[in-house]
TrEMBL record:
Domain of life where this protein originates: Bacteria
Species of the source: Mesorhizobium alhagi CCNWXJ12-2
Protein name: Phosphatase YfbT
InterPro entries according to UniProt: HAD-like_sf (IPR036412), HAD-like_SPP (IPR051806), HAD-SF_hydro_IA (IPR006439), HAD_sf (IPR023214), PGP-like_dom2 (IPR023198)
A GO term for molecular function: sugar-phosphatase activity
Length: 231
């Protein structure tokens, strides 16, 4: 399912056996943190006497350090990003689940899944805890790269750590900047949610993870071996 086809249907069936690893974006993909981010950014913007609406518009799919550098060049980006992250943690009660995300994420063996996010590590860990999702063995956060999405560096960093070729890694992203980062790194990407719909270069599109058809035994090589041995 590619190009125009994905605007007509919201179901994608990807064979996990075609990939060694599955990488997830976090915000908007595994968790709905829009209210958390908005609360934190509006609080920070008001304190800095910046238009909260302007801060929100400029924040789309950006790391907080990049946002601060773009709209308040007189402030220290790292310090302000840490402050925004703290405000997000305080607003974590507003976090909402993505339908089917926890079940799908947990169906992937721990050694075959990771998260690549533009959020600060402390915020990402708080989101995972609030959503009841276990922390992956590899979590690429804002501090781990010098260039955030849509630059491919976040996914290139993951691929180097995994020591796999890009086409062996499947990515789930909810934003166009995230999709562009994954594709620029050479990975196959499935879009999720309304903001990702219609991108011509994705592997497919789903509204939520209830619409992803993945079989557990395809995710687990051990299960495949057991089935072969039984024949």
């Amino acid at each position: 399912m590619r190009g125009g086809d994905q605007t007509k249907t919201a179901t994608v069936n990807v064979q996990l056996e075609d990939y060694d690893h599955v990488a997830f974006d976090l915000d908007g993909t595994l968790v709905d943190s829009e209210a958390v981010v908005e609360s934190a950014l509006r609080r920070w913007a008001r304190e800095e006497r910046i238009s909260p609406d302007h801060a929100l518009r400029m924040s789309a799919a950006r790391r907080d350090v990049d946002l601060v550098a773009a709209i308040t060049p007189g402030l220290l980006p790292e310090r302000e990003a840490a402050r925004i992250a703290d405000y997000e943690i305080q607003a974590m009660r507003l976090l909402q689940p993505i339908q089917g995300a926890a079940e799908f994420y947990n169906s992937i063996p721990a050694e075959r899944r990771s998260i690549v996010t533009s959020s600060a590590r402390v915020s990402a860990l708080a989101r995972l805890q609030a959503a009841g999702l276990s922390c992956p063995r590899i979590l690429i956060a804002a501090e781990d790269v010098s260039q955030g999405k849509p630059h491919p560096q976040p996914y290139q960093t993951l691929l180097r750590m995994l020591r796999i070729t890009p086409k062996r890694c499947l990515v789930f992203e909810d934003s166009r900047t995230g999709i562009e980062a994954a594709i620029a790194a050479g990975c196959d990407c499935v879009g999720i949610g309304p903001n990702a719909r219609g991108h011509p270069d994705t592997r497919g599109w789903i509204e939520n993870f209830c619409e992803a058809s993945f079989l557990a035994d395809r995710a687990d090589p051990a299960s495949q071996n057991e089935r072969r041995a039984a024949k």
